[in-house]
Amino acid sequence: MVGDQLQRNSPIESLGEYENPLIVKALVYNLRQKALMETLDWRKPKPLCKGSGMNWEYQGASKIANSLRDPLVKHFKAWKDGRGDKSAHAMNLVLSGPGTGKSRMLDEMPKLLREAAVQEEDPELLKRIQKAYVFNVTFENATAVSTAIDNPTFEVCYRMLYQLTKEKLDWLVFRHRVKTSFGKVPLTIQSVVTMLAELISVEDVKDITVILCVDGLQKLENDVTKRCAFYFVLAELCRYVNTSEAFAVCVCSATIAIPVENVINSSQQARHYLVPPPLLGEVMVKPTTRLQSQLVDDMGGHGRSLEVLYDWFHTGGADRLEQLNSIQLVDEIYTAITMKYGDIFCIYPFGDPAFCRSVLAAILSRLLMRSLLKSDEVGDFDEQITNPILQFAYVDQFHAGSRLGPISRTQILELYSRRVVETVHQEETHAIMTIQRSLQIEMVTSEQ
Questions:
Q1: Domains defined for the chain, CATH in brackets
Q2: Rounded Cα distance, 66 and 300, in Å
Q3: What's the superkingdom here (predicted)?
């Protein structure tokens, strides 16, 4: 039986009592989605990397593209065949320490994927990547998670819509407006891409290629269970990449402090790990003196440290470097790092004195350490401090860069010979000792 006729100006929810409620809901959703669409338009993404190094020449692109090649080709073939097999659709995970270049790698991802397609010599894949629509989503900085998350699976969608919004609002204002005005619109990553297709006048979503970059997953609540926001967001991304109507490549980043592997180790989802390479600092900073070269070398290829040094050099610091105790500069760089990434020093294992002493002993000894001691005692610590080969006047005057490397284990990895400078007083000459051998200091932490 047909319901009562609507009265003029009556609300849409007041359809006759016999009206099919599913039809009512569908009509309401369509009207709200149409209203939402009127606020959107295609907008190119803003860079995720905001530091002074955002425009530096990107290093290691060919090697990274080569590592992306096989999982990208396998993913593309499975998508064309209509197979939703988790093992065929790789989730790309950029994992490394803070300040090592994860955001910059995500910014470079369209170029890296394009290079991977060129290496594969696949014209169809290359054409799709060249015409891809890129979404940059981040849980840091301006769109950081600042309130409790009601529905974690919506959080990526909100940020995708924020990129598309015509009216540039503050993030919190925009998020509140979407939740209150369009909260009943059934949002998924797929539905946002469908909206994109309508915005750019593409009839078939399958004709679209999407590159979805999600930065800063470590900012989501993560208790290593399937109930936390981290798991829900990662699961939604995996679901989308496995079943997307459009050809979609997903790339996520997180610091290695977050046990990503523990969250998804029970899944058959394919994953491809990417680690930003150490940087050759002299390429960007361009030192002109021996001491400048030493300081660049001491940054250990760490991107954020090199940015701080670069900024310092280009604000007059280079002119007064010879009159400045270089240790003061290293302290300034350390302060800048802790201001931005201070929380990394407050979590395990950096809060464990035994761990920190073992790391220091390993760096000072320049020897391969097979494992970290778990007790509070490091048997050879004093020996390493007093090693006559090193002849350091004060331990705190030793400054050496270190880097956390591959994801499966905790490592300090140095890929080239390094210089070590001893500074006792600023008036004294800097004594330089060149380490002739490349080294790799590996610290294997036992599984909890």
A1: 52-274 (3.40.50), 284-442 (no CATH)
A2: 25
A3: Eukaryota
